[in-house]
Amino acid sequence: MCGFCGFPSAPGHWTEAGSSATAHDRLRARYRRADLLKSILPAQGLTAHDDMQTPGICVGTFSGNQVIAANLAEVWEAAERLSGRVFDPLDPAFLDGGTQDGGER
Amino acid sequence: MIRDGAEGRMKLTILGGFLGSGKTTWLRHQLHADAFGEALVIVNEAAAVPVDDALLYRSTRLAVLPDGCACCAGKEGFLRLMRGIAEDRVDGNSTRGARLEQLVLETSGLADPGAIVDALRSDPVLVHHVVVGEIVVAVDALNGLVQMRGEPLSRRQVETADRLVVTKVDMADEAELKRLLATLRQLNPGAAIAGAALGSGAELPDYADAGAEPLPDLSGRPPAPVIATTLHVDPAIDWTTFSTWMSALLHARGDDILRVKGVVPTPAGRLLLQGVRRVVQPPEILPGGAANVGGTDNEIVVIGRSFDPADLPRSLRRFVEIAS
Description:
By secondary structure, chain A is α+β, with helices and mostly antiparallel strands. Chain A contains three helices and three strands; from the N terminus they run αβββαα. In chain A, strands 1-2-3 form a three-stranded antiparallel sheet.
């Protein structure tokens, strides 16, 4: 656990279990996760940033409001709080290839 | 971070079921038959005066948690007791016999087992000490249907079970019993169903031809049937993409997705994924390396309601498109 920020407070989140064979795997998965969130979150009007140094993922709004999330579950909670709506992968707009705002990406 | 099986943590079996469903009778018999070995049995009662502990004298280790249900009013007390047990175990204070490996929690009849799993998973101490092994829910063959008709809690208990034990089958009318079994199968298509009479195992009739009881809607929402579907995950999809998608899905639809179960091959090994509503257990690494032993890898069973099963693979594909 990091002595400054207390992350992670629990043993790895379930989403991290599949990539922990080696330290390289973990880092690669972390880059991959950051890339994924950078592709997904802008449609919600949000940004994602992981500096690979400090624990957690920084979820922010375009106006600068920011929250540090320890894991993916917290990312989606933060995204809901910051954007005021839930990112729903089963939303028809998402399924049809647009964003939840109705616009094409 | 890797969770290889229980990894030294205590395995907790949660025994739930509605008031009077026969939880204690079943547990008493299981203890007699030595099904839980040297387990510590925790009995939770919503009432202030405990009774069940007197019935469970067979257990060599017993803790009683009266005055409040462990999933709501008595949650703090339950977590405190569990932390105490974990601390004693770490300090080696276990006075009787071997180190404690198994716990059985008999919940009060008013508990939602899902909420207890949630409480344990969110506790920063207990998550290192306890892993939930199985949720067993007792259903009364005589009153089960009536309870499910009128009590949303009774349905929630059934929905979260890994194993349903239908009790008092010797006293039930066969047609009624078949209807109950078909209803249980519809509510929780993923659970194993067993019968019991006076606590010991009993044969269940074949209910393939029986119709399920149409349960009235109690939530005010239009009734939505529970669907069990199997999602085939393309082996080309990496674990990070899949787990990111799944975590988003559970966040958005956690109230509707009751169970997620399956095996996913990953760089770390074959992961057994198990979720109850929003809470996913730390996945266990199964033996067998990357081999697809049972031929069921990459098949994720999703049980829930209010979604179109065809949307799951569509949504995952869409997610992969955006990610690539």
